[in-house]
Write a structure and sequence with these properties.
The structure holds 2 protein chains of 2 kinds.
Chain A: E1 4-7, H1 10-31, H2 33-44, H3 46-64, E2 68-71, E3 88-89, H4 90-94, H5 96-100, E4 118-121, E5 127-130, H6 148-180, H7 189-194, H8 202-223, H9 238-274, H10 276-291, H11 294-311, H12 319-353, H13 357-364, H14 369-406, H15 417-424, H16 436-463
Antiparallel strand pairs in A: 1-2, 2-3, 4-5
Helix pairs in contact in A: 1-9, 2-16, 3-8, 3-9, 3-16, 6-8, 9-10, 9-12, 9-14, 9-16, 10-12, 11-12, 12-14, 14-15, 14-16, 15-16
Chain B: H1 2-29, H2 33-41, H3 48-58, H4 74-77, H5 80-85, H6 102-137, H7 142-155, H8 159-173, H9 189-219, H10 222-229, H11 234-255, H12 266-272, H13 277-287, H14 290-318
Classes of the chains: A mainly alpha, B mainly alpha.
Chain lengths: ~475, ~325
């Protein structure tokens, strides 16, 4: 049994903290009828729930990638255990076939040969200029290289059948779950789902899960034999890079809002509730921050952070740690530059709320200001906060790609959509075109952002009192 | 009105001082000039003399905020803050790492930036407003539904994709216009066509959806019902009444970005090799040229504040009910 040492990166801690916070908020919501009703409306939104299913799949990948460890190195018994420098995650372990089967350089999706010609030594001292055979891609086929389409098709078909079976089991489970509920109509759970008689949009969720299984199961089955998305310049599997990018995107999208939220909520409410000089000071601060164009402020801050990191190499014991802290610093910088919008919204809403009768009644009863804020104002601002949270996510994921391109994003060694695009974009100039890295990164990002946008719309429709 | 504008301009001064203090803190307090020198000269094997020389060449060898060694007014003026930050108020930005005068560089690069940003802005506004108007006119139909779906899909696509895809398709595969570059004078149109087109397309998704909601909000108002009750045909109601009133929030909303057009776009300019302010900024970021980045931050915030003042003025122009005392 190989030993290992658990590594808890800062971003792991924050992301698990978010999970705990999410569960906490869930419990709180279950106890608050208006919030519960709003979330029920989200649950009934079919597009929103389909999007949420996709988002959950992405989050699952991100969470698997947030459990890090270091493998114990082989040593003599009795010696103090030493651990590998490389920090791995559970996702790395699960995707070991993808991670370890590296080729020499580019190869197209489902290719059996390398992208570039090389000089191959033939037995007998002769040499030949040809496309060398891939070490791993389609190696099980041996000499039958022309059988790729048939072989891949058959494998995909088998995996698809398996996916359908799995889906049928899941659907049956869902039907049984619906059946157990209050039986108002005389119908089986299955019928209720497809007649859309359930309060929760089961049909949308099941359809999405079915589609995802149909795509994902064959994809990963084939990924064991081929490079389904091709390989990049150093021969790394592109599918593996896409999987690793998910966590980076999620952290940028989620941790940033976590960072800015307390500041925006506190300052917004304080400015709106107490007014006077506090309002002036807070308004001054956010006008100053706001008046610097976002990208430039981020650029300036990231440049400075880079200097700090480069001049203090002793702070970081592994490269992963350095990349991780840089990612977190980027989240902080994005958070500090983006809280002003939410803060202004909350200030305006608080200004309105504090003039309402029930607040004035509470003031007349001598309830302390902080108690009024916590008990009476904060709950009535929750919808703005929730809407802002989900609306910001997709923008931040997109921003990461742009910032990484500009050179002020994540650490170049960290796999993200931005670094993938950045390193692949020059390859469009080659002949023949190396398109697969870019295509994979853009597609994955599109699916993630689209799901986030659709989910955000569903949440906004459910929470915004002006809509409906 | 004039008094109001003057007051707003005066109000801008403390904000600009705040911006200046913030950038100063970012650039000189978080990292001492010594750190920056080490960064520029290479972290390893750098002698203290080399650092001192680097600092002296750039005037970073002075005290940061207060020079206690000097006499009179120069306790404040003979400092890094005054020399490097306060002088930006009079348009003196100092020199870049390559020794060129930043102010002159900025002046010469504004033209190309504007040549791309202005057509993109005007054309984009026209296209998105027309599209949103069409969607709102056919509201609650299949056309509207699929239009919104298209908008959501378009706003979920990374801006990088539009640029990379557009360059690849139009310039490389179809060979219609050059991939990148810039020319002075009339000849520039060949280089401007693609970036402007891509700029317009990448903005369609989010703006159209936003303008559509503004139009729909306007359609639900009482005066529209009155107009219909009078028996006006829907097209007249829409194009004479709704359009004009909905344009007020749309146009006043975009005024704030007009001054910022001078700054150009970081992404577009660097992808298309346009010698504007956007690519200047990106080059400075990549070369870690702090003086240039600092100047761009300052100019950006000045232009933003000008935009805010213009927005307020535009309110009074389009809506006679608003008066500023």
């Amino acid at each position: 049994m190989m030993g290992f040492q658990v590594v808890l990166l800062w971003s792991d801690m924050l992301i698990w903290l978010l999970v705990v916070a999410g569960i906490g908020v869930g419990v709180l919501v279950a106890k608050t009828p208006p919030l519960l009703a709003a979330w029920r409306r989200v649950g009934a939104d079919r597009v929103g729930m389909a999007a949420a299913t996709v988002l959950l799949a992405f989050i699952a990948i991100g969470l698997l990638d947030s459990l890090h460890y270091r493998v114990q190195l082989d040593g003599k018994p009795g010696q103090k255990a030493s651990y590998a420098v490389e920090v791995l995650s559970v996702l790395d372990a699960l995707a070991a076939p993808l991670r370890l089967r590296n080729e020499k350089t580019y190869s197209a999706p489902f290719a059996t040969r390398l992208y570039a010609k090389e000089t191959i030594d033939l037995p007998g001292g002769e040499t030949l200029r040809d496309y060398p055979r891939l070490k791993h891609g389609g190696s099980h086929l041996g000499e039958r290289e022309d059988a790729v389409a048939a072989d891949a098709g058959l494998t995909a078909f088998r995996a698809g059948v398996l996916a359908l079976l799995a889906w049928a089991a899941l659907a049956a489970g869902a039907a049984a779950l619906v059946q157990r509920g209050p039986a108002a109509v005389d119908a089986s759970g299955w019928q209720k789902i497809w007649r859309r008689e359930t309060a929760f949009a089961w049909d949308a969720v099941l359809l999405t899960v079915g589609l995802m299984l149909l795509v994902v199961v064959p994809l990963f089955w084939l990924a064991g034999q081929y490079h389904v998305f091709g390989t990049d310049k150093v021969g790394q599997d592109v599918l593996y890079q896409v999987l690793k990018s998910v966590r980076t995107g999620l952290i940028i999208g989620l941790v940033t809002t976590l960072v800015m939220l307390p500041m925006a909520v506190l300052l917004g409410i304080v400015a709106g509730y107490f007014r006077g000089w506090m309002d002036d000071v807070i308004q001054y601060i956010y006008t100053v921050l706001n008046s610097i164009p976002g990208v430039l402020l981020i650029a300036a801050a990231v440049l400075m952070m880079q200097v700090v990191i480069d001049t203090h190499p002793q702070w970081f014991s592994t490269a992963a740690e350095r990349a991780d802290l840089r990612l977190l610093a980027l989240c902080f910088i994005l958070g500090i530059t983006s809280w002003t919008g939410l803060c202004r919204l909350l200030r305006g809403e608080t200004l309105k709320l504090r003039e309402l009768e029930y607040i004035q009644a509470a003031q007349a009863f001598g309830v302390s200001s902080w108690r009024i804020i916590v008990r009476h104002i904060l709950p009535n601002l929750m919808h703005i906060v929730i809407i802002a949270l989900v609306m910001d996510f997709s923008g931040l994921v997109l921003a990461e790609a742009v910032l990484s391109y500009v050179g002020i994003g994540v650490d170049p060694t960290m796999i993200s959509f931005g670094t993938m695009i950045n390193s692949a974009r020059m390859e469009l100039g080659r002949e023949p075109v190396v398109w697969w890295s870019l295509a994979a990164a853009f597609t994955a990002m599109f699916i993630l952002v689209l799901a986030a946008n659709l989910f955000a719309d569903a949440v906004r429709d459910a929470f915004d009192p002006r809509a409906a | 009105m004039l008094a109001y504008i003057v007051r707003r301009l005066l109000y801008a001064i403390p904000i600009l001082i705040g911006v200046n203090l913030l950038t100063f803190a970012l650039f000189f307090v978080v990292n001492t000039p010594d750190d920056m020198a080490r960064m520029q000269l290479g972290v390893k094997r750098v002698t203290p003399e080399a650092i001192e020389k680097w600092k002296a060449e750039r005037g970073y060898d002075k005290p940061l905020l207060i020079n206690s060694g000097a006499k009179g007014l120069s306790t404040v003026t003979d400092t890094v803050f005054f020399q490097k930050s306060a002088r930006m108020f009079v348009g003196d930005f100092g020199r870049a790492e390559d020794g060129r005068d930043i102010a002159r560089e900025i002046a010469s690069r504004m033209g190309p930036s504007l040549a791309i940003a202005l057509p993109t802005f005007i054309l984009g506004l026209f296209v998105t407003v027309s599209f949103a108007l069409t969607l709102a006119f056919f509201r609650a139909t299949a056309f509207d539904f699929w239009g919104v779906v298209l908008c959501v899909a378009m706003m979920s696509i990374s801006g990088l994709f539009y640029i990379i895809g557009g360059q690849f398709l139009i310039s490389k595969v179809w060979r219609l216009v050059p991939i990148s570059g810039f020319a002075d004078g009339v000849d520039a149109w060949r280089f401007l066509l693609l970036p402007v087109l891509i700029g317009v397309i990448s903005g369609i998704g989010a703006s159209t959806r936003w303008y559509r909601t503004i139009f729909l909000e306007e359609v639900g108002k009482d005066y529209v019902r009155t107009a219909r009750a009078k028996g006006l045909p829907e097209t007249i109601v829409f194009f004479r009444h709704v359009l004009r009133n909905a344009l007020i929030p749309i146009l006043t909303g975009v005024v704030v970005v007009i001054p910022l057009l001078f700054m150009g776009s970081l992404l577009t300019e660097s992808f298309f090799g346009v010698p504007g302010l956007g690519s200047y900024t990106i080059d400075a970021i990549n070369a870690q040229d702090f003086a240039v980045v600092r100047s761009m931050v300052f100019i950006g915030s000045v232009l933003y504040i000008v935009g805010l003042i213009l927005t307020d003025i535009s309110y009074t122009v389009v809506d006679p009910r608003i008066r500023f005392e």
